[in-house]
From TrEMBL:
It is a multi-pass membrane protein. Its main location: membrane. It is found in: Membrane. Residues 291-303 have a biased composition (Polar residues). This is Rhodopsin domain-containing protein.
Amino acid sequence: MAMGGKAPEAMAIMWTLTAVTWIFVVLRTYTRALIVRQFGADDYVFVLSGFMLLFYSIFLQVSAGYGFGQPVLALELDDAVRAVEWEMIGQTFAVIGMATAKVSLGLFLLRIVVEAWQKVVLWIASGATLVVSVIVAVLFWTQCLPPRALYDPRVKGTCSFGIAPFSLLLGVTCIVADFFFAAFPLVFIWKLNMKQKEKITIAASLSLGVIAGAAGIVRTVSLSGIASMNYTEDTVPLIIWSAVELAVTMICAGIPVLRPLYRRVTGAFSTAASKSASSNGGYYKHGAGNDTRSTNINLQDLSSSKDEGGAGGRGGKGDFSDANPKLGLRGTTTVTYIKGDNHSDEEILGWEFRQGQRENGIQIREHVDVRVERKESRSRGQDQRDKASVEEMV
């Protein structure tokens, strides 16, 4: 049957949230797997959460086809039973998804923190949310035996307890976790050795968790709908706000990780400007995502003295008396000096991470290769030309 009642509006909201969330899933996967090349546990859990939201929307869409969003008394009995059944399946994915999204956020923060007590607190917050969610999901389907007696009045069964108190416990746990993950980064983020811009990006994005917490409050208030006789219509607010909480949590966890992608995109635009500027008297290295000429490469000759024969330091017979032994080079050469910081693609992980936790995150590798090529002069008095190249790999 066609959707009716509150279903069209509810499904439009859910699919919009799902689409926006999956944009972050795709961008984060691309960033971590192809740009940073460090796809970790938090990324896997993040993708899993995206599928939880996707399945949630799919099953609610199926339920809407049978009557979700409409008064139950206006539905045929078979349609009402199927609508409730598919809605309950979708709610199960939402319950687990809200937990996995918060676990992903906790695992991301574990990449940044360095103190033991901070790690313990994050593990407790993430683990408690996951345990409560799994327990509620199991109890949701075992409160009545057989489970079909939950949504089909034609099936006789025994109900041992009600799910409402456990759903309330889950709602409170998720609310506390949302506000915790929004506030906790403010405790340590300003002390990390990273750029102020990165600190503000992380703090601002994670602070959006306050919105998820607010959605959790509204969702918890809407729990009364699960005990209503008009289940297909009265649970609409619960369904919508569960999707909002899950989507906002994932967006909070996705924004900070996209910093390397932002650098690459903005760098593509500024590279053209840098090349244009270099043709007007300067040779510039791109400065990590801005259009300024802040990182200048100066080329300086180490020596320009000439030997007694007039051929100069570049044209002798192999006796390079003016060579600089400290550089390990023989003969007059050209060395490239690079001024400015060497920005990695993911400075948000901080100095502590790069020094002590390389196995879990970004590793920075720099390779400087100086090659000196000596050409014999083809005519008398012609100077030898040296070539030097510098390659930087991050």
